[in-house]
Amino acid sequence: MLVNPSEVDAAMAARDFFSPAELLDFIDLPDILARETWGRDTLNARGDRFHVRRLECEPDPGCIAAWSPAPYGFRYELATPSGLRWADFTWREVAARIHERLAPHRYGRLKRAVDALRAHERAYVPSCAPYRSVEVWASLSAVPWSRRQSELELSAACAKDVILPAVQGHPALF
After folding, report:
1. Are 102 and 94 in contact (CB under 8 A)?
2. pTM assigned to the model
């Protein structure tokens, strides 16, 4: 259990920044210079600033967290009822946090999950094949594809959670 607010913010800033695929890409980069470039490009692609709302089971529930570029990393801001809390984090600090819990079996699990998810996404055909009806198309194509997509996304999210765990345990989905 983390009690230091700055440690909680550091953990959540790193965890919430990455999707499973982005985490894998970040880990696979060869050095800190490549990670800094990747981070800068990712922030630029997101419009130099992006936001998430903290969940009810997280510290400061409902507050808006935002990331923006900072020298060698990013600024993490949290708008709370008592005011704005912020800290700057470098990509070196983020990499160190990731590598604290990274082990070969955890990396392998993340790699397999992300590769399976990416392969499934590449296999998607956005056009309708000539089915008799929308119902037949849904039952033979759309629903099974979506179900498998959800399974793969959950598997990738679980693999990410082992490397960058939630600050407080999240409730079970089901």
Report:
1. no
2. 0.85
